[in-house]
Amino acid sequence: MLLRTHVTFAVFLTLILLFNYPTANLIQIILLVILGAILPDIDTKTSKIGSKMPMISMLFEHRGFFHSINFIIFLLIIGFLTNTLLSIIWVCIGVFTHLFLDALTKKGIKPFLPLSFRIGGIIKTGGFMDKLLFVIFASFSIIFGLIIYS
Question: Which of the pair, 30 or 48, is modelled with greater confidence?
Answer without folding.
Answer: 30
